[in-house]
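Dear colleagues,

As part of the handover before I leave the project, I'm documenting each prediction I ran so the next person doesn't have to rerun anything. This entry is a single chain, and its sequence is reproduced below.
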Amino acid sequence: MDRIRTVLILDGQGGGVGSQLVKLLKPRLPEDCRLLCVGTNVAATSAMLRAGAAQGATGENAVVYNAAQADLILGPIGVVLANGILGEVSPAMAAAVTGAGAVKILIPSSSCGVYVAGVEECRLEEYLRRAVDLAARELGL
């Protein structure tokens, strides 16, 4: 497997999930790995940048462009759903994320009205910890 060099964290609304992912994942990343964030809105992007992401961008084109460049994508499950995250995820954004060649690690959320069979119900903090552990495994850490 080729070495993962670009990790993209996507989020919307207030960026709470994305900022927590940044805080948990950043200390575990190798130095040659770039951590960037893209928010569906400015508030989400700002929260992830404050949490420590190296670079950030906002909006539909930023999602489309950066999803295609990323080696690993993390975010709430709503980022792969057209009209997800209360309509913040456009069909073009969802298509870009699902069509990206990157490995995707998604955080389940019952607030989108989508349930994944076989995923046990647990607190958000546990989902985030598990997502970071999966990311670390993908990174070979």
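The two ends are 14 Å apart (CA to CA). The beta strands are 6-11, 34-39, 55-58, 72-76, 103-107.

All the best with the project,
I.
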